[in-house]
From TrEMBL, chain A:
Official protein name in the record: Pyruvate dehydrogenase E1 component subunit beta, mitochondrial
Functional summary from the UniProt entry: The pyruvate dehydrogenase complex catalyzes the overall conversion of pyruvate to acetyl-CoA and CO(2). It contains multiple copies of three enzymatic components: pyruvate dehydrogenase (E1), dihydrolipoamide acetyltransferase (E2) and lipoamide dehydrogenase (E3).
InterPro entries hit by this protein: THDP-binding, Transketo_C/PFOR_II, Transketolase-like_Pyr-bd, Transketolase_C
Cofactor needs: thiamine diphosphate
GO molecular function, one term: pyruvate dehydrogenase (acetyl-transferring) activity
Organism: Geodia barretti
From TrEMBL, chain B:
Its biological purpose: The pyruvate dehydrogenase complex catalyzes the overall conversion of pyruvate to acetyl-CoA and CO(2).
Catalytic EC class: oxidoreductase
Domain Dehydrogenase E1 component intervals: 1-296
Cofactor(s), by name: thiamine diphosphate
Entry-linked Gene3D superfamilies: 3.40.50.970
Documented EC number(s): 1.2.4.1
The organism of origin for this protein: Geodia barretti
Protein name: Pyruvate dehydrogenase E1 component subunit alpha
Biological processes, Gene Ontology terms: pyruvate decarboxylation to acetyl-CoA
GO molecular function: pyruvate dehydrogenase (acetyl-transferring) activity
Catalytic activity: N(6)-[(R)-lipoyl]-L-lysyl-[protein] + pyruvate + H(+) = N(6)-[(R)-S(8)-acetyldihydrolipoyl]-L-lysyl-[protein] + CO2
Record-linked InterPro entries: DH_E1, PDH_E1_Alpha_Subunit, Pyrv_DH_E1_asu_subgrp-y, THDP-binding
UniProt keyword terms in alphabetical order: Oxidoreductase, Pyruvate, Thiamine pyrophosphate, Transit peptide
Length: 324, 306
């Protein structure tokens, strides 16, 4: 076992990926600058400009060129500096990367990994603090990963590199410094496999990305009140592990889904809907949902923090829906 | 060219019979570009373009039978009936589509060119696009990246003067000489007569030679005319019926025929034989498409993921 922070786990994953000659990394400021979040620091010297390509600020052609290279048999990793900027490339992601296999009925594959940084809480204001993984998780043809720990980041990225599909790999901006243990032996985490980060019998908390840690905080608070929460980290949104969630709900009969993005249209709606469709009789009350407040992210720190889900809101949601 | 022409005419008829559905964009009048350009390439060079793609597909060697089957939504089509007219693909022949989003193919073209440079292959990517695409951001992003990275890509603009129903004079400052835009990206550009198949072939051959030597991208604006509407749904209210005549447009196929006869390259009899063979090929394609089955319901879920 080695202890490392999430950033180091991703850096390690990228280094491993580059052992395959077909892999290269393309994005803004990933080379000479060392990466906006320092993930690729030193890579330009180590791997050279032919494999670590600094691009102009052109998200659409960054993703599109990734698609084209993938069609031609390479396995590119492109970086969109943040998921906020993915909107500039959304046509290439949704209309091209996701659909070329289907529209060609399998003649083409798009083995493209799109790494990006998601989430808010750094007072970067409204256009730099968003989380759109839920939007991409709606798109057939894409896969979406949202790791919350170094172990998960490394395991999922290894799986992503072996996958011949286009994958959005969303790393949370505030989790790069998160510490965790990583096995020295090889392991991989398949997409569509959630992780029970904490076992419990009284209530289920479903979360992903940074909200997993907020959920664990809520679980600690619940323990003080004598309640044991089961915290499920989805790890991937497309596919997502429905069975693990349902099994937990059947056991606890109480569930809250926590998500950083706006509550309206959030993926928590998808999860809540599935739970009530398939485990209706196991519920002691309506599925609770805690999401970002329906506002653009404010700059002021207090306002911003209040707009993002916290453990108090999780506790309150459980109290409101289940009286606990 | 004649094969493309007759194929497109057959498509038009099938569309009116309700056997081809959705959007159908015919390449009639523009054949000289696809044929002249693609015949200047090596078989493994990449070709990618827009939704008016039947001509490019056939010029790249796609079997007209499987193209027609695709247009009719049959399981024997190039995409099993799941792509349709705007999404013809032939991976073996490096025909990379067929793309319906205006300009959407351009970043992908950059990727294809990037891949050949990365793999140290001396392949060229030929990227077709229309006068409508030159105002999309992706056009500019792609030209810029291609130039800065010296990608082996030939940008071939098929300027038929209309972006759907809007004349290029109304959409692009300098719409009669769009190739000049390329110089802003340090890409050598020229304008040629896109109705002259031999001229197109010569110009593309020259450009491809330079690109293959590693000299970076090139830009060719081929002026052309599409005889039919933007698509089968287009009542062409935005132009006069006799515009082609007014503009003195010369049918590319007639031009080549006259040239061949005049310079004794081929006689009437030989040309008639070719025409008969083409008719046979097209009839065969239509028959194949009509006789082919529709996809099963299970095809709904295949190939969403690899």
């Amino acid at each position: 076992m080695t202890e490392m922070i999430l950033r180091e786990a991703v850096t390690k994953a990228l280094r491993e990926a580059l052992e395959d000659d077909r892999v290269f990394i393309m994005g803004e400021d990933i080379g000479a600058y060392g990466g906006a979040y320092a993930v690729t620091r030193g890579f330009l010297d180590e791997f050279g400009p032919e494999r670590i390509m600094d691009t102009p600020i052109s998200e659409s052609v960054i993703v599109g060129a990734g698609v084209g290279s993938a069609l031609a048999g390479l396995r590119p990793i492109v970086e969109l500096m943040t998921i906020n900027f993915s909107l500039v490339a959304i046509d290439q992601i949704v209309n091209h990367a996701a659909k070329l296999r289907y529209m060609s009925d399998g003649q083409f594959s798009v083995p493209l990994v799109i790494r990006t940084v998601t989430g808010g809480g750094g007072q970067l204001a409204a256009t730099h603090s968003q989380s759109f993984e839920n939007w991409y998780a709606s798109v057939p043809g894409l896969k979406v990963a949202v790791p919350a720990t170094p172990y998960d980041a490394l395991g999922l990225f290894r799986a992503a590199m072996k996958d011949d599909n286009p994958i959005l790999f969303a790393e949370h901006s505030l989790l790069y410094g998160m510490r965790g243990e990583v096995p020295d032996e090889w392991y991989e985490i398949p997409f569509g496999q959630a992780d029970i980060k904490r076992k419990g019998n009284d209530v289920t908390i479903v979360a992903y990305s940074r909200m997993t840690h907020v959920a664990l905080q809520a679980a600690a608070m619940l323990e003080e009140k004598g309640r044991q929460a089961e915290v499920i980290d989805l790890r991937t949104l497309r596919p997502w592990d429905k069975e693990t969630v349902l099994e937990s709900v059947r056991k606890t009969n109480r569930v809250v889904v926590v998500e950083e993005t706006w509550k309206t249209g959030g993926f928590s709606g998808e999860i809540a809907s599935t739970i009530q469709e398939e485990a209706f009789d196991d519920l002691d009350g309506p599925v609770a949902r805690v999401g970002g407040l329906d506002v653009p992210a404010p700059y002021n720190g207090t306002l911003e923090a209040a707009a993002i889900p916290n453990s108090e809101r999780i506790i309150k949601a459980l109290s409101d829906n289940y009286g606990i | 060219m004649l094969l493309i022409r007759r194929f497109e005419e057959a498509c038009g008829r099938l569309y009116m019979q309700g056997k081809i559905r959705g959007f159908l964009h015919l390449y009639i009048g523009e054949e000289a570009i696809a044929v002249g350009a693609i015949s200047a390439l090596r078989p493994d060079d990449y070709v990618i373009g827009h939704y008016r793609d039947h001509g490019h597909a056939i010029a790249k060697g796609m079997d007209p039978k499987i193209a027609m089957a695709e247009l009719c939504g049959k399981s024997t089509g190039s995409s099993g009936g799941k792509g349709g007219s705007m999404h013809l693909f032939d991976v073996e022949r490096h025909f990379m589509g067929g793309h319906a989003i205006v300009g959407g193919q351009m970043p992908i073209a950059a990727g294809l060119a990037l891949s050949s440079k990365y793999k140290k292959e001396d392949l060229v990517t030929l990227c077709f696009f229309g006068d409508g695409a030159v105002n999309q951001g992706e056009f500019h992003e792609t030209l810029n990246l291609a130039s800065v990275w010296k990608l082996p890509i030939l940008f071939l603009l098929e300027n038929n003067l209309y972006g759907m129903g809007t004349h290029v004079d109304r959409t692009h400052a300098g719409g009669r000489h769009i190739y000049e835009v390329a110089s802003a990206y340090d890409i050598p550009g020229v304008q040629i007569d896109g109705m002259d198949v031999l001229g197109v072939n010569e110009c593309v051959s020259e450009a491809v030679k330079s690109i293959r030597k590693g000299e970076g991208p090139r830009f060719i604006e081929a002026m052309c005319y599409r005889y039919r509407g933007h698509s089968m749904a287009d009542p062409t209210m935005y132009r006069e019926r006799d515009e082609a005549q007014e503009l003195g447009i010369k049918d590319p196929i007639d031009s080549l025929k006259n040239f061949m006869i005049q310079f004794d390259v081929a006689g009437e009899e030989e040309l008639a034989k070719i025409a008969a063979k083409v008719d046979e090929q097209v009839n065969e394609a239509v028959q194949f498409a009509e006789d082919s089955p529709a996809p099963d319901m299970d095809a709904m879920y295949t190939n969403v993921y690899a």
